[in-house]
Amino acid sequence: MSAADLSRQEGMDLLNKLISESKRVEVFMVSTSFEMVTCSLRGIARIGPDGRVWIADKDFVPGDPNLAFTPSAAFGAKYGDERLAKDFPFMADRFREHFASVLMFRFKNGSIVGLFELIDQQS
Predict the structure, then answer these.
(1) CATH code of domain 4-118
(2) pLDDT (0 to 100) of residue 104
């Protein structure tokens, strides 16, 4: 599989597929607007109470670790293999061992959110 640019609708369709199939992901966020701040956690993507996409380990409970974002605010989306992982520190080396694919959203402020589908859904 190669890395492919997606239309906004294609990105949302793939995200909805991850959500509807309750696929476990490792979400990784890089923000260049805050001196290269990064965050990652594993969980399942869901639509949260505020309409954003929330990634949390279990059913979302306020105060539990989570990452939430608004994919409709992204200006671009990509889907692919380890070639997309180069945008995320330390992920390229881990890709083949742990991940089946990555769905990436880019935002105007330079932030990137990548949802890395885990190969082992029990992880």
Answers:
(1) 2.30.29
(2) 92
Residue the block writes with tokens 């990784």: 28
Give the other-Cβ count within 10 Å of 68's Cβ: 17
In angstroms, the CA 95 to CA 3 distance is 14
CA distance 119 to 115: 13
| Size (the chain), residues | 123
pLDDT in tens, 100-111: 889 999 999 888
- For the residues of 71-98, what is the DSSP string, one character each? GGG-SEEEEESHHHHTTSTTHHHHHHHH
Structure tokens at 46: 């869901």
User: Could you tell me the pTM of the whole model?
Assistant: 0.86
Q: How far apart are CA 45 and CA 58, in angstroms?
A: 10
